[in-house]
Amino acid sequence: MAAGEKEKRSVQRKRKPKILAVINDSCTGCSGAPICITECPVENCMYEVENPDAPIFNRVYVDALLCIGCKKCITKGPMDTLLEGCPWDAIDMIPLEDFEEENGTLAY
Ligand code: SF4
Ligand code: SF4
């Protein structure tokens, strides 16, 4: 494991989360270095996909089935000075029931 890289959990959680992270249109892909993926504690939960609106940059997608709703991807440091999560407010935390109403029931 590279220095500074956090150990990630690979097991699926047993309980449904109350909220899920959903990436909105503000995602820039952080120019190829997505800080959110670094912060997410769950293996393969967040990953880069092609951005059809800006093909030279990817954007990030969240696997709703793996997201545990921990909010680490949107966490900011003390006084909002140290950014730890998304610096572009590109991640919305959505209630699971709203997500499932729009996208169908998740197969936990
Ligand atoms: S809420 Fe937690 S588990 Fe979900 S995408 Fe963000 S960091 Fe990963
Ligand atoms: S930190 Fe925000 S802008 Fe950067 S890749 Fe993740 S969601 Fe997109």
Written account of the structure:
By secondary structure, this protein is α+β, with helices and mostly antiparallel strands. The chain has one domain: Alpha-Beta Plaits (2-Layer Sandwich). It is built from 2 helices and 4 strands. A two-stranded antiparallel ribbon has the order 1-4. Strand 2 and strand 3 form a beta hairpin. It is globular, with a radius of gyration of 14 Å. The chain starts with 18 loop residues before the first strand and ends in a 5-residue tail after the last helix. The model has no long low-confidence stretch (mean pLDDT 86). One iron/sulfur cluster binds next to loops.
Provide a brief overview of the structure.
By secondary structure, the protein is α+β, with helices and mostly antiparallel strands. It is built from 2 helices and 4 strands, in the order E-H-E-E-E-H.
Note the topology:
Layout: E1 19-23, H1 35-39, E2 46-50, E3 58-62, E4 91-95, H2 96-103
Antiparallel strand pairs: 1-4, 2-3
One iron/sulfur cluster (SF4) binds at residues 21, 39-40, 42, 45-46, 62, 67-73.
